[in-house]
Amino acid sequence: MNIEQGLFQFDLTDYHAILGVSIDADAKQIRKRYLKIARKLHPDSLRTSTDAEKQQANELLSKLVNPAYETLTQEKTMTEHLVVLRLRGKQLSGQSSVNLTSEPAKALVGSQNATSLYTSSLKQLAETQYESLDQMLAVTGQISELNLAYLVSTAGSANGASPTVTSANKSTGAATGDASAATQKKNTVPLSPKRQRESIIDSYLNRANEFVRRKEYSRAIMEMREAVKSHPTNVRCHSHLAEYYLAAGQAKMAKIHLKRAIAIDPSNALAQQLDAKLNVTSESAGSTDAAKAASTSQAKPKASQSKSSKSKGGLFGLFGGKQK
């Protein structure tokens, strides 16, 4: 089997699925997984394999694995890739039902503990993904669907609702398939440019909030910094970035983005809350500094007076001695 014969089995743009890593994976995890796959597909690891198997491994490495790794290790392409995936999950979460084929993906949608279930299911699939080259595409397809189910589930949780899972039946007739496609097309409403922009920002915020929940403030800040780069005049991006900086104890950076948020929209509720919080913090710090300054100023006159008296006494004693 060559790559072209199996590409239809999963979404080629899901680079996380190709590497078998979590949507939340960081650069270190991605590199570790890539090196493990590359070793498996290297000719030295396939000495007992046939020439056809070696060719197949080479195709997998050059046409799928390497491009996926390059995409996920470059900040710009990684960000764009995540935005596309999350927007897709956001759009599907707004539909009345989602068509899934694998059991792990079906179980994930609507789960009360989606993150834990996603992590454990992905781990099981990733362990077998490159064990059999003939099954690699099928397993990758399951991981791709699992990723999509996770995105739909987390987006649905943010919206307060989860879509109904429907099973795909490959044995149904053409009429049923056409009706299903027509229904999906009818239920899918094209997003306006404004709503699409808001959806992208929502995806940034959902990810950042997940990092905050785990107290990974640096990753939450990185997420919203990318959002600010893409949407520099959006008050939500700046106000939430200020919020995360403040949570991380970086008040100066928080003030910079808070100032920008207020300039864009002075009535933004989060910006007003943060402004009040930062003002209280500043006043408290100012009071402490003032108290220290007052204490220092009270101590100085005594020292000066003592020094002055000592000097004055010495001079009078000197001249007095001369007058006598």
Report on this model:
The protein has helices at residues 3-6, 15-19, 27-41, 51-72, 75-93, 103-108, 114-129, 133-159, 174-187, 193-213, 217-230, 235-247, 251-264, 269-323; strands at residues 97-100, 164-167. It is an all-alpha fold and 324 residues long. It folds into two domains: 3-167, no CATH class; 193-273, Tetratricopeptide repeat domain (Serine Threonine Protein Phosphatase 5, Tetratricopeptide repeat). A two-stranded parallel sheet has the order 1-2. The longest helix is centred in the last third of the chain and has 55 residues, at 269-323. It starts with a helix and ends with a helix. 28% of the residues are buried. Residues 1-10, 169-191 and 309-324 have low confidence and may be disordered.
Binned strand content: under 5%
Overall morphology: elongated
How would you sum up the major sheet? Answer: 2 strands, parallel
H/E series: HHHHHEHHHEHHHHHH
| Mean of residue pLDDT values | 75
- Poorly predicted regions are 1-10, 169-191, 309-324
- How many domains make up the 3D coordinates? 2
Computed structural class = mainly alpha
Termini separation (Å)?
A: 120 Å
Question: How many helical stretches?
Answer: 14
- The radius of gyration is 31 Å
Q: How many strands in all?
A: 2
Strand order of the largest sheet: 1-2
Helix content: over 70%
